[in-house]
Amino acid sequence: MYRALYRSFRPARFSDVVGQELAVKVLRNAVRRDRIAHAYLLSGPRGTGKTSLAKIMARAVNCLQPQDGEPCGECSVCLGAGLHTVEIDAASNRGIDEIRDLRERARYAPPEGRYRVYIVDEVHMLTTEAFNALLKLLEEPPPQLLFLLATTEPHRLPATVLSRCQRLSLLPHTEENIEQQLLTIAPEAEIDLAPEAARLIARKADGSMRDALALLELCAGHGEGSVDLDTVLLATGSLDDAEITRFLDLVEKRDARAALDWLGVQESRGAELRQLAGDAIGILRRRMHEAFAGRRDAEAAGRLRTLERLAALDAELRRGMEPRLAWELMAAEGLADPVAAQTVQASTAGTAPTEARPAPGPAAPAAAAAAPRPVPRAPRPAPSPRAKPNPAATPVSSEFRANFVARLKEPRAKAVLEHAQVYDGGESWEVRFRAPPFLAVAETPDVERDIRSALERTGGSRPIRFTLSQQGGD
Fold first, then answer.
1. Is-contact 148 55, C-beta < 8 A?
2. What is the C-alpha to C-alpha distance for residues 75 and 64, in angstroms, rounded to an integer?
């Protein structure tokens, strides 16, 4: 029967564990010197080897022929580890009854070997009552009992439990370690893996060796046993660094129209826009560090500003915001902030930004003729949406706002209204947006028409103004 890669290549000895030198050294020395604590807490992110280390330790402490702290893998104990080792999933066995049953069984010696070993995975999921029942065992454990606790959230364990365990913190795997492990495993798994594909999988794994092996397995299925860079990009819905860099350049130059066109093309190709933020952040961080290292302070500062915008966008996506809309809001800053765009373009050209000047007089006809003519825009309903907020206006009630939002039909209108507040100015309604990108989206014809219609149906026919205010959002 076929086994997943992460199960087939699970380490069986301490020497097989990759990237956790400190934890391996502590556990192996404990077995070698016969100084084994009664409880160990293995904490760390997913896929870092907590359960694998616990299983190796369970075999090592009972091995009949240990070899320099390592389980031999050949004796009856190593081959029949289930006789003296009990694995408990605390996520599904989290109540006090399960822990009481464990306490009853813990009194008996193991059928073979020195220790009865309990591996408790996701131990932070135990209830308060279950922790209290477990505490008695940890305070006065029987000599034949060994607890190996594993968790991704050690801060959720009571201090009384933490203080009675030897705590070993496992670190996320480095991209170099994951890449090297993938290139080592791939030939044994009969997978033709290209180095650049292994590098991208290692980056996508985010420090988890298990995630990396699962992704390699997925890509091998796509590529029928052969995995190159294009296969990984296709399987994950990702984009290569060159494409993402091109988009970042458009964002930094505030070329909103080109950025929006780029987004449309990539979405039509099946790119996963939710993970684009993480990929873009990784690339931009490297470019920012390169700029700092090269003492290009102005460039590094610009990268930092873009990085802050990407981090905010990534947070919005994690809260469930529609991906295409989130990226459109970011790209629309180029339309909503022409002064900043002028500054970026001027700094790119190596000149200072010019201030707005009055129209040239009769003495400068040539300059007037050379100046580009502005493209006329369609007229907007008066008064101007860019008017200053009315200081005398007061926020509408929550009931009014709820009725108003319920009448909106356009999804983008509902999204941008989450970042705006409605004010009653007496003779007019005022919708205040807290950032230029949200105002830019609200000004698009369909969204603006929907907002105006819903507001008129909620509060009656009055002039409606769109304004920008840092205090405009909820």
1. no
2. 6
- Specify burial of residue 83 (Cβ count, 10 A radius: 0-12, 13-18, 19+): middle
Burial pattern 157-185, b for ≥16 Cβ within 10 A else e, equals beeebeebbeebebebbebebbbebbbeb
- What tokens does 215 get? 């992704």
**Cβ pair 347, 298 in contact under 8 A:** yes
Q: CA-based angle 304:305:306, to the nearest 5? A: 90
Q: Yes or no: say if 414 and 406 are a contact pair by the CB < 8 Å rule.
A: no
Tens of pLDDT, residue by residue, the chain (474 residues): 778 898 889 998 999 999 899 999 999 999 999 899 999 999 999 999 999 999 999 999 988 888 888 988 888 778 765 568 888 888 887 788 888 888 888 777 777 778 888 999 999 998 888 888 888 888 888 888 899 999 999 999 999 999 999 999 999 999 999 999 999 999 999 999 999 999 999 988 889 999 999 999 999 988 777 899 888 988 888 888 888 888 888 877 878 788 888 888 888 777 788 788 888 888 888 888 888 888 887 788 878 888 888 888 888 888 878 888 888 777 776 544 444 444 444 444 444 444 444 444 444 444 444 444 444 444 444 434 456 788 888 888 888 888 888 888 887 788 778 888 899 888 888 898 877 767 877 888 888 888 988 888 888 888 888 888 755 444
Side-by-side strand order, sheet with 464-468:
394-395, 420-424, 429-433, 464-468
Whether the Cβ atoms of residue 56 and residue 82 lie closer than 8 Å to each other: no
Phi, psi (degrees; rounded to nearest 5) at 145: -110, 135
Angstrom distances, CA of residue 424 to CA of 189, 345, 381, 455: 68, 39, 18, 11
Distance CA 40, CA 395 (A): 56
